[in-house]
TrEMBL record:
It comes from the Bacteria. One of its GO terms (molecular function) is transaminase activity. SUPFAM superfamilies: PLP-dependent transferases (SSF53383). The keyword Transferase applies. InterPro entries: PyrdxlP-dep_Trfase (IPR015424), PyrdxlP-dep_Trfase_major (IPR015421), PyrdxlP-dep_Trfase_small (IPR015422). This is Aminotransferase class V-fold PLP-dependent enzyme. Signal peptide: none annotated. Keywords: Aminotransferase, Transferase.
Length: 339
C-alpha cells in the first residue's frame, strides 16, 4: 500500500516495503510536482526551450557538490555508457584496463569494444587497486551485491600512475563522496538521486583530455548562438562534452540533487547503511555499511516478494536496497520473510 513517509525533511509517497531503489528510486513529492508543472507547461504550449537552462545548470552544480568537484568540471549526458565511451575512446592503443569481476556492463563494455589492442581484464575486487593496468574502471558501489570499492587503494593507484574511472550510480545520494582526485566520475540520476531517468553526468579531471565526439549546439560556448554554422566554438571546461539535455529529467534532477547536496550525507549513510546492516546482522552476515544487501539464497526473492516487499532477483538470490524513505519496519519485514 502506498503511504506518505517523511524523511530528511521531505515527503515520499512510497509503498511500504519498497526495497528496490538500486533499480529505480522513488522521488519526493516536491520533485514529482516540479516535473508535473513542467509537463503541464509542455502540454499546454506555454513552456519555452530557454526555460530549462537554469535547471540544467543547477543539476550540474549539485552533482559536482555530491562528488566533490566544481561545476566547471561536470559534463551533462543522458546515460552512463556514452560518457564512459568518451573516456574509452581516449585510452591509447594497446592500453591495459582492469575492471572487477562482476562489474556492471555499462562500465566495462565501452572499453571492451574498442579494439585497437586494448585489453580489458577482470580482476578479483580485493586485488583491483593493485592491478597492473593503465586504467581501472569500477563502480564505487557494485550493483549486484553492494560491495563498496576500496577508494583509498584506488586513489593510491592513481598516485602511482594508473588512471581511474569511477561510476557512482549506486552510491551518489547516500554515500559521502570526495572524488576530485579521480580522472572521471560518472553517474546516472534515477537511483538514490531520485530523478527521472534520462540524465547523467561526468566529472572530468583537468589532467584528462577528452575529444567531444558528440559535439553539438548545446556544448558550444554560446549554445543559443550556435544552432547553425561553423566553426564550432566550444568552452574550455567540461561543458564542451555535453549532450543536449532531456529537459524534464533535469527539472527533476535540479530539485532532487539540489536538496540532497544540502543534506548531511554522513547521517544519510548512517540511516541507509544502518538499515541494511540490520538485515545483515539478522542473517548472520558481516556488516559492510553498504545500502545494498545481496542474499545468496535461491528462494530469497520469492519469499520476499510473497511478503509484499519490492526487491530484485539477482545473481541466484535477492538484492535489497535501502534508501532515505525506508524504516526499521521495512528491514524487520525482510528478516521475517527470510528467517
Amino acid at each position: 500500500m502506498r503511504e506518505a513517509r517523511e524523511a530528511f525533511g521531505r515527503i515520499f509517497e512510497v509503498p511500504a516495503g519498497y526495497l528496490n531503489t538500486a533499480s529505480v528510486g522513488v522521488p519526493t513529492t516536491a520533485t514529482a510536482d516540479a516535473v508535473a508543472v513542467a509537463l503541464d507547461a509542455w502540454r499546454h504550449g506555454t513552456g519555452r526551450a530557454t526555460d530549462f537552462d537554469g535547471v540544467v545548470a543547477a543539476a550540474r552544480a549539485a552533482f559536482g557538490t555530491l562528488v566533490g568537484v566544481p561545476a566547471g568540471r561536470v559534463a551533462v549526458g543522458g546515460s552512463v555508457s556514452p560518457l564512459v565511451g568518451l573516456v574509452a575512446a581516449a585510452v591509447p592503443d594497446g592500453a591495459r584496463v582492469a575492471v572487477p569481476v562482476g562489474e556492471f556492463s555499462s562500465v566495462s563494455y565501452p572499453f571492451a569494444v574498442q579494439g585497437r589492442g586494448i585489453t580489458v581484464t577482470e580482476v578479483p575486487p580485493a586485488e583491483l587497486a593493485d592491478a597492473d593496468a593503465d586504467w581501472i574502471a569500477v563502480s564505487v558501489v557494485q550493483s549486484l551485491d553492494g560491495r563498496i570499492a576500496d577508494l583509498d587503494g584506488l586513489r593510491a593507484a592513481r598516485g602511482r600512475g594508473t588512471r581511474v574511472l569511477l561510476d557512482v550510480t549506486q552510491a551518489a545520494g547516500w554515500l559521502p563522496l570526495a572524488l576530485d582526485w579521480a580522472d572521471a566520475v560518472v553517474g546516472a540520476c534515477y537511483k538514490w538521486l531520485f530523478a527521472p531517468r534520462g540524465a547523467a553526468w561526468m566529472a572530468v579531471h583537468p589532467d584528462l583530455d577528452l575529444v567531444p565526439h558528440a559535439a553539438n549546439w548545446y556544448a558550444a560556448a554560446d549554445p543559443w548562438g550556435s544552432t547553425t554554422g561553423l566553426p564550432p566554438v566550444l568552452p574550455d571546461e567540461a561543458r564542451r562534452l555535453d549532450a543536449s539535455p532531456a529537459w524534464y529529467c533535469h527539472v527533476g534532477a535540479a530539485d532532487s540533487l539540489g536538496w540532497l547536496a544540502g543534506l548531511d550525507l554522513t547521517a544519510v549513510h548512517r540511516h541507509c547503511g544502518g538499515l541494511a546492516d540490520r538485515v545483515r546482522d539478522g542473517l548472520g552476515i558481516a556488516p559492510t555499511g553498504s545500502a545494498i544487501v545481496h542474499v545468496d539464497r535461491p528462494d530469497a526473492a520469492e519469499r520476499l516478494t510473497a511478503a509484499g516487499l519490492a526487491v530484485t532477483a539477482r545473481g541466484g538470490g535477492a538484492r535489497m536496497s535501502f534508501a532515505l524513505y525506508n524504516s526499521d519496519d521495512d528491514a524487520d519485514r525482510a528478516l521475517k520473510a527470510l528467517l
